Amino acid sequence: MNSQQPVVLITGSSGLIGYATACRFVRDYDVMGFDRVGPPHPPPETEYLLDCDVTSDDSVWQALDEVRRLRGDRIASVIHLAAYYDFSGEPSSLYDEVTVRGTQRLLRALQDFQVEQFIFSSTMLVHAPCEPGERINEDWPLEPKWDYPQSKVETERLICAERGDIPVVMLRISGVYNDFCHSIPLAHQMQRIHERQITGKVFPGDITHGQSFLHLDDLVDALQLTVARRAQLPPETVILLGEPETLSYDELQREFGRLIHGPETEWETHQIPKTLAKTGAWFQDLAPVEAVTGAEPFIKPWMIDLADEHYALDISRARQLLGWEPKYSLRGTLPKMVAALQADPLDWYRKNNLEAPSWVEESSGAHPQTEQQAKPAERRAPQGPAEDEI
């Protein structure tokens, strides 16, 4: 490491976003990664990976003491990605312990350092949804609909109350994906269509509604610009990040259908009543796993109430303050996602944490060792990276 480079501390540095950010930032910064040592991603060779559990006072203080020993007490930016998320819909104290109190613990310990910037990875889902034709900006009403965005709202408020002299930036990020997919809702949508599941033909909401997404590389670009412009940003800044184009659910369904099953395919999606959808979801949720698909069903009853929500973003502030514009689009990346699925279905299922049906394993020619390796990776809890948003 070049000790003359500014220090950037990244929490959740072994996660998808954290790892991509660390790999990019090591070119221009001394990167200190905070995470629990282990999978899923190894640290870049030029990064210090420090074992840190944000739910522990001792762990946070020890990790920061090591930063001081290695590079002193001046930190150019803290990029805080560590957070708890869960798609079960069940209440969990970990939202408070990891996301809210973990951030408070880190922020308080940083008061002894000279920190030029603290970036918090929030979510666009803190906002109330809009109607087609409208666009959400940073002043749009806050209306989190479930525990994950609610924990982000609470943490944003805590940061503003306890930041001291540390300038803070709240990045409200849309759903993150990359060329291999690595987006929980998109991967499940692709799986349903690939397997021609009946649930891939129905939807309990308005199929003309959709939500903004963001390519991982564009997010890392935005983080780079946020750090580079840290001296020019206001002491408390909120910025929405997402693509200006919002594809509807119906558009995604049709495009996935054509790409997966051939250009002549017209994949039709039928809107069904929420009561019927909930009945089916409750049945799947309560039935033994083997009686459903061989895997835990993704669609939960609580998700059905949110099916109509529409999120289209006004990114004027990101353009103005950061000079940032997305270079990628979800529409343009869909063919790459499907190409990755078709090139090696078993590998795609494994890397997207999906259970492959037997016919996918058989068509891939998987032998016992390969099948064992191809099982979905175990989810990391409680500090999963914040990119896995719906």
Number of DSSP helices? 15
Helix fraction, binned, reads 25-40%
CATH fold name of the largest domain: Rossmann fold
CATH class of the largest domain: Alpha Beta
Summarize the structure in words:
The chain is α/β, with parallel strands linked by helices and 390 residues long. The protein folds into 2 domains: 7-176 and 214-241, NAD(P)-binding Rossmann-like Domain (Rossmann fold); 184-209 and 247-309 and 331-373, no CATH class. The chain has helices at 16-25, 57-71, 94-109, 147-162, 184-194, 216-228, 249-261, 274-286, 289-292, 301-304, 316-322, 330-343, 345-351, 358-363, 368-373; strands at 7-11, 30-35, 48-51, 74-75, 77-80, 114-115, 118-123, 168-173, 175-177, 202-203, 213-215, 236-241, 270-271. The strands form 4 sheets. The protein has a 7-stranded parallel β-sheet, sandwiched between helices. It has a two-stranded parallel ribbon with strand order 4-6. α1 links the parallel β1 (7-11) and β2. The longest helix is centred in the N-terminal third of the chain and has 16 residues, at 94-109. The radius of gyration is 21 Å and the shape is globular. The model is unreliable at 289-293 and 367-390 (pLDDT under 50).
Features:
two-stranded parallel sheet, Rossmann fold, disordered C terminus, alpha/beta, single chain, 390 residues
